[in-house]
Design a protein that fits this description.
Order of helices and strands of chain B: HHHEEHHHHHHHH
Number of helices of chain B: 11
Shape of chain A: globular
Strand content of chain B: under 5%
Largest interface: A-B, 43 and 46 residues
Distance between the termini of chain A: 28 Å
Helix content of chain A: 55-70%
Largest sheet of chain B: 2 strands, antiparallel
Number of strands of chain A: 0
Structural class of chain B: mainly alpha
Structural class of chain A: mainly alpha
Radius of gyration of chain B: 25 Å
Oligomer: heterodimer
Chain lengths: 333, 355
């Protein structure tokens, strides 16, 4: 069509129609890929909210202790069992005030301070378990996808791990290895942190490995890899320079999923009483400690529970938005 | 298909062996002495005898093989004996007495050694069977309820894509996905037991259902645990249902069905639904063992003394044979339902041929 439509000597009208063909330079400045991704991401209201909330929580737990300087473990038995500040709205005689806006627990510890410190632990466990599990999953996925000989063994291994009962085994590992790791790392918090992070990571890398392997298998057959190989790039270089940047988007999506699972698993372990030591606040621990006094002080269950749920919800929405934004077929629609 | 099934069945044997080895080694590597709770007044030589009676003196591989033998040979034979002697279905068969052996000293028939719980000193399987009905009732019912809610939601939100219902449904499933059961449980208790006082917060297992009144109580106490578990199931399955329906609604055969004048309900509920159910059915099969694991937390919240709660108490009491057996039962369930999902996929979808 183009061959015949363009006359040998274009008249003015034709120039207008086929303007793009004679343009010296593109009419609009080129857009980078990440700008496109951001524009698509902005359209997803839930994802925007999720990202914002996650950022807020992360900043709050990082900077919170500098703004709210009450020690989370400080006992103040005279001021125990304060109600949250909003109780004053309907009950003017309630024990509440701006001194402890979220109230205090049965030993007079400030709940806001406990939430901030608990959030620190929960987020730290979530992020580090997620990063570790991504690392394992990507390594195994790339190895299985790129090296044919390793593929069968690694994927059978992944299948085997997938059919392990995860929650019972996690519970088992955490209960059984609590003491030796505590002894090995000096403090119970450090031992528990390393144990929980590694247990969560070791039981959640499989989905990432499968997705990465599938993508690598498809990418490996493309021409640009052949070209890279033909100019003598080594396998390591091909993987680092050509394959990994191309699988970054599925990895980012499974990262959000991993963060959500890690936060929930850590809270579940704390809730079942096998997590961090008892004087060490985490969101799950605050929740489970409050369950026995649920009848008198329901807010102590609700506050940490809402925080966990909102964080996980926002991470899930973030993942949803990222999936849409990073997929070039959906982008721009 | 038969060929594939047999191959998969054979392949699941090494898988199960590997899993049992992992669990066993994990337990062996871990510290924790089952004799820790024995009073200090018991002399050391008696303690040593007790250790040997529990089979703790033997080398690791002997312990492992003994456990395997007991789990795969002794327990099934006890079960067969139970069937042929007591059960209604097979009671007419002659008593098998597979699990009986002759005592070398007295020559009398005695029961073989079974996997013994260190906590209660009774066979592990007996306790598991005692706890099984509660778990099956609560967890099984929640799964059925979850599926029954999820499928209509999935169908309708796919059919009215981007409508208000669809967006609300997506939001609710996202919320169901994100709220962990250890929060929904206490939340429901705060609302329905503490504030409103409608439902009991503790599941009473000793309740015997023999009249209309007790049936009502049973129903009331089951509502909350079932709803907590069903929320998770609903969230997951309705998402799959929706995306499967969306995939199928744009297919050519749907246009053909409409073009030949079929009513809308037949097109959606027969043509599209049947094709969309293929992946959903396999997801349902795959989710069954996971719900047993998820039930650990819910059973703990509502004090249902089912299998999940049994695992937790056994874990805290250092009762290794019980933990080992239960974890392995979960593993068997996972492998079994993976197999069922694979076979179902092949049976339901004629395009998929494994051979």
């Amino acid at each position: 069509m183009t061959e015949q439509a363009i006359p040998a000597s274009p008249i003015e009208a034709d120039l207008e129609i086929y303007g793009a063909l004679v343009d010296k330079e593109p009419s609009r400045p080129p857009r980078s890929q990440w700008r496109d991704v951001w524009d698509q991401f902005r359209k997803h209201k839930g994802a925007l909210f999720g990202g914002g909330f996650l950022l807020f929580v992360t900043l709050a737990v990082l900077l919170g202790p500098y703004l709210w300087t009450i020690e989370p473990t400080k006992l103040d038995i005279r001021n125990k069992d304060w109600r949250p500040i909003y109780t004053l709205l309907w009950d003017a005689d309630a024990k509440a005030g701006w001194l402890h806006p979220f109230g205090t627990d049965q030993l007079g510890r400030d709940i806001l301070a406990q939430m901030i410190y608990g959030g620190r632990v929960s987020m730290a466990v979530g992020w580090s378990a997620m990063i570790l599990s991504l690392f394992i999953g990507t390594a195994i996925g790339v190895a299985a996808g790129y090296f044919k000989r390793a593929d069968f063994l690694l994927m059978r291994f992944t299948d085997l791990v997938l059919s392990l009962p995860i929650l019972p085994l996690t519970l088992l590992a955490v209960t059984l290895f609590r003491q030796p790791l505590t002894a090995a790392f000096g403090s119970p918090e450090a031992g528990m942190f390393i144990l929980i992070v590694s247990v969560i990571a070791l039981t959640s890398w499989m989905q990432t490995a499968r997705i990465v392997r599938g993508d690598i298998l498809a990418l490996k057959e493309r021409e640009f890899i052949l070209a890279a190989r033909s100019i003598g790039s080594t396998s390591g270089k091909i993987i680092r320079r050509h394959l990994l940047p191309n699988v970054i988007s599925p990895i980012m999506v499974s990262a959000t999923l991993g963060l959500a699972t890690a936060i929930i698993t850590e809270s579940a372990l704390s809730f079942l009483g096998v997590g961090f030591p008892s004087d060490f606040p985490t969101w799950g621990k605050l929740l489970s400690d409050a369950v026995v006094r649920m009848q008198e002080y329901p807010e102590r269950v609700l506050l940490p529970g809402i925080l966990i749920s909102l964080t996980v919800l926002s991470v899930n929405y973030l993942g949803d938005g990222l999936r849409d934004a990073l997929d070039p077929r959906i982008r721009g629609r | 298909m038969l060929n594939f099934t047999i191959r998969r069945l054979l392949l699941s044997i090494p898988t199960l062996l590997f899993i049992s080895l992992v669990i066993f080694l994990l337990l062996q590597l871990a510290p924790g002495d089952p004799m820790a709770q024995v009073p200090l007044t018991v002399p050391p030589e008696v303690k040593q005898k007790m250790r040997e009676a529990l089979g703790l003196g033997a080398p690791i591989h002997v312990q492992y093989l003994k456990w395997l033998y007991q789990f795969f040979v002794v327990e099934p034979s006890v079960f067969i004996d139970h069937l042929t002697s007591n059960s209604f279905l097979f009671g007419w068969l002659p008593d098998t007495q597979l699990s009986m052996t002759t005592d070398p000293v007295t020559g009398a028939m005695v029961e073989t050694q079974r996997v013994i719980s260190w906590q209660t000193r009774s066979p592990v399987m007996d306790i598991v069977i005692q706890r099984m009905p509660q778990t099956l009732w609560v967890v099984g019912l929640s799964y059925v309820v979850g599926i029954l809610i999820a499928i209509p939601i999935g169908i309708y939100s796919a059919y009215r894509h981007y409508s208000l219902f669809d967006q609300a449904g997506t939001f609710v499933t996202m919320v169901g996905f994100s709220i962990p059961p250890f929060f929904t449980g206490p939340l429901l208790i705060v609302i329905f037991s503490v504030t409103l006082g409608w439902l009991p917060s503790i599941y009473d297992t000793t309740l015997v259902v023999d009249s209309w009144a007790t049936f009502k109580i049973q129903l009331m106490q089951m509502i909350m645990p079932v709803m907590v578990l069903a929320l998770q199931t609903t969230a997951q399955i309705s998402r799959y249902m929706r995306s499967a329906m969306l995939d199928n609604l744009n297919q050519d055969y749907v246009r053909t069905a409409r073009a030949k004048g079929l009513s809308e309900s037949v097109v959606v509920m027969v043509h599209v639904l049947r094709n969309s159910m293929i992946p959903v059915v396999t997801i349902i099969a795959l989710g069954m063992p996971a719900i047993f694991g998820g039930a650990i937390i819910t059973e703990n919240v509502f004090k249902v003394n089912g299998i999940g709660q049994l695992l937790l108490t056994a874990l805290f009491a250092n009762d290794l044979p019980m933990v080992m057996t239960l974890t392995f039962i979960f593993a068997i369930l996972i492998v079994l339902f993976n197999l069922i999902a694979d076979i179902l996929y092949g049976v339901l979808d004629p395009r998929i041929r494994y051979d």
